[in-house]
Design a protein that fits this description.
This protein has about 375 residues and is of the alpha+beta class. Helix content is about 35%, strand content about 25%. Helix 4 packs across helix 5. It is globular, with a radius of gyration of 21 Å.
């Protein structure tokens, strides 16, 4: 650790979490881990919670300190702060103002770390807002976030780059409702099948089904979270997960981790409510499989135009020797116990260094944005 900087010299990071999605609580756990992991000699984190009503609240410093100091020994999802505090608004230049006194600047954020999972935060909505305000932020931009969140668009991007995915079909809620026999929409897929909302993460709304009656129920459950549903062939395989950090020109992948499944697939409870160790990092697979996972992960990252970070999830069919890309998460679970962090730790990159690099990438992109703006202004001046 270096000599602590003064508040004016430290980089002020707005760690934004919460939001109206079903992944609200998971986001809080990730945000608290980020705050704990940021180097105190370089960064000064400011916690901003977004409520289910989409109002932004600046958490009191004392509340954050107490949460950081709390021992994290239970399920990951329980170790999180509550959205409370002064209602605030973000303005251009990273100025954070009180909603009731907008003329008063409470904080000036140098960069935002949007630790948001699911719709509103991981789908390009928040990224577009930050772009419009000219505020640097960690992670993928508007387009990559949107494509990564939408499993149908993601599959199309993967197919264009020759990245293997499980056979599947998708349909809208209207198509399902007006079809005389909606089960025919998934004709041709063998059993079992996986049913998923097109735009949701953390296994929320996902079901494994073995027959028509289960399929109907699973589709209705998925429609609770999205108007588009994806039905995939239920490939039997090992769950391998791989982290990616970088940009389009210089991205690298971690060693893959394996998520061991209790039952048919890793559901929400296994991922966030259990204290059992279900992750092996690095995964115990042949060297050629490890190399293939890492290569496909970087290709998947580039296929959607990713930036900063992502986690790519695969199914490894050992019997057939085949890998299938399941999805890409542009803001994966970010606790130190999450698969993303564990994979990088096994690769030799500790959590603190991950955060350093992600913030550096955010500033590098913002520098390029400012350079483009200056060039555009110079070009306009030249033709006046």
């Amino acid at each position: 650790m270096g000599i602590p900087l003064t508040p004016d010299e430290q980089t002020c990071i707005g760690v934004v979490f919460g939001g109206p999605s079903a992944e609200h609580q998971i986001s809080g756990a990730s945000a608290l881990a980020v705050i704990r992991g940021l180097r105190s000699d370089r960064f000064r984190p400011v916690a901003i919670g977004v409520g289910q009503d989409c109002r932004w609240r600046l958490l009191p410093a004392q509340t954050v300190r107490q949460a950081v100091a709390r021992k994290a020994d239970g399920p990951a999802i329980q170790d999180r702060p509550t959205v409370e505090g002064t209602e605030v608004e973000l303005r251009r230049g990273g100025c954070l103002v009180a909603a009731e006194a907008p003329a008063t600047v409470i904080e000036r954020l140098d960069v935002v770390f949007p630790v948001m999972h699911g719709p509103f935060g991981e789908d390009g909505v928040l990224q577009g807002y930050l772009e419009a305000l000219g505020v640097p932020y960690v992670g993928s931009g508007v387009v990559a976030s949107g494509v990564g969140m939408d499993k149908v668009a993601m599959r199309r991007a993967f197919a264009a780059e020759g990245i293997p995915v499980a056979p599947g079909v998708w349909f809208t809620q209207r198509q399902w409702r007006i079809r005389e026999d909606p089960l025919t929409l998934a004709d041709g897929l063998p059993w079992p099948r996986f049913v998923k909302p097109a735009s949701m993460g953390s296994s929320i709304g996902v079901s494994r089904v073995t027959g028509s009656a289960e399929l109907i129920h699973a589709v209705e459950e998925a429609f609770r979270y999205d108007d588009v549903v994806l039905v995939e062939e239920g490939i039997t395989g090992r769950e391998l997960l791989c982290g990616v950090i970088g940009d389009a020109d210089d991205a690298e992948a971690s060693l893959p981790s394996e998520l061991r499944v209790i039952g048919d697939f890793p559901d929400f409870a296994q991922k966030y409510l259990s204290t059992a160790t279900t992750v092996t990092s690095p995964a115990d697979v042949p060297a050629d499989v490890t190399a293939r996972v890492r290569e496909l992960s970087v290709r998947a990252f580039r296929a959607i135009g990713g930036y900063g970070l992502a986690r790519v999830d695969f199914l490894y069919d050992e019997a057939a020797g085949r890998l299938y890309a399941g999805e890409i998460n542009t803001m994966p679970g970010f606790t130190a116990r999450s698969m993303f962090a564990r994979g990088w730790a096994a690769t030799g990159v500790p959590y603190e260094q991950i955060l350093d690099r992600l913030v550096d990438l955010a500033f590098a992109r913002d520098t390029r944005r400012r350079d483009r703006a200056r060039r555009s202004e110079s070009a306009r001046e030249a033709v006046r």
